[in-house]
Amino acid sequence: MSTGKSLRAGLVGLGSMGRHHARVLSGLEGVDLVGVVDPMGDKFGAAQGVPILNSVEELIALGVDYAVVACPTALHEPVGLSLAEAGVCALVEKPVADTVEGARRLVEAFESRSLVAGVGHIERCNPALMSLRARLEAGELGDVYQVVTRRQGPFPHRIADVGVVKDLATHDIDLTGWVTGRQYVSIAAHTVSKSGREHEDMVSAVGRLDDGTMVNHLVNWLSPLKERFTSVTGERGCFIADTLTADLTFHSNAAVTTEWEALRAFRGVSEGDMIRYAIPKREPLQVEHELFRDAVLGKPADICTLRQGMRTVEVAAAVLESANTDRSVSLQPEDLAAHGS
């Protein structure tokens, strides 16, 4: 990179995700990691010898161009607002905030100062989903009918402050809007809490996007089977992405004609070829950091904006509202394009 001068970056939080951020940041080309904030210290030695600080104010005083916010969700808003007020760009872990109002305040704080800010919706950088999105944009599926996601696995002990909707379903909400280029207009959901915690640990949701596409999400922390499944079904067949292995397969509708009159009258589909694509598999977190670095440098980079992150929090809030009231919740599509995102 020929910028002549490296960007100065900071990190807030050395939890399980923060430690991964520290690893990638410390080796990121064109970037110097200059300070890490964690009042608990660096008990895993993840900061690679970088100074450990007690407060965001100390980090700002070091003179950073941007900071990665990987502290607990409830702290995203106060930390983000401090960074925005100091004129520091920020990459905030998902979800961007734990409330819609908090997300709005963050959007306003960064947008009003024209600061680059993004949300760490890492699935956007998964090779299988990047390839799927490019193929949908190229029209390979024709009309899209349905998006189905399943995200299941055992309970992660690192999560204490939110339930499965805000922690996991936000991945599926964001990736669904991102790969289709569409927004949610309605959602209906049921949740259960079986693990003795105050938050929900399983959710089943059915939604609709603004072009009529049907959406199904099944997310839980109650399964010994780990699954990360996304399928998009449309006019020409079905794409299936496994984001654990970063594999993408395509099951095509066969163009086989039948002479049986009764069957021909039914406009169904028949089984066709199955293709498994060979795609380069780079680490999604590395890709996410490179994109954000480029965005800070003013280069074109497809990052998840704070406004898009806020939209995901709005849909997640609608999921919880639907589950609590036992009714379908409508959402107004927002003109994201008008806000440069």
Automatic annotation (TrEMBL):
Which residues are in the GFO/IDH/MocA-like oxidoreductase domain?
Answer: 131-239
Q: Which UniProt keywords apply?
A: Oxidoreductase
Q: Which Pfam families match?
A: GFO_IDH_MocA, GFO_IDH_MocA_C3
Query: Which superkingdom is the protein from?
Result: Bacteria
- What are the coiled-coil residue ranges? none
Query: What is the annotated signal peptide range for this record?
Result: none
Q: Which residue ranges traverse the bilayer?
A: none
Stored InterPro entries: Gfo/Idh/MocA-like_OxRdtase_N (IPR000683), Gfo/Idh/MocA_Oxidoreductases (IPR051450), GFO_IDH_MocA-like_dom (IPR055170), NAD(P)-bd_dom_sf (IPR036291)
Source species: Streptomyces rishiriensis
Q: Does the keyword Oxidoreductase apply?
A: yes
* Broadest EC class assigned to this enzyme: oxidoreductase
Domain called Gfo/Idh/MocA-like oxidoreductase N-terminal: residue spans: 8-121
> What EC number(s) has UniProt assigned to this enzyme?
1.1.1.374
Give the protein's recorded name: UDP-N-acetylglucosamine 3-dehydrogenase
Query: Which GO terms label this protein's molecular function in UniProt?
Result: oxidoreductase activity
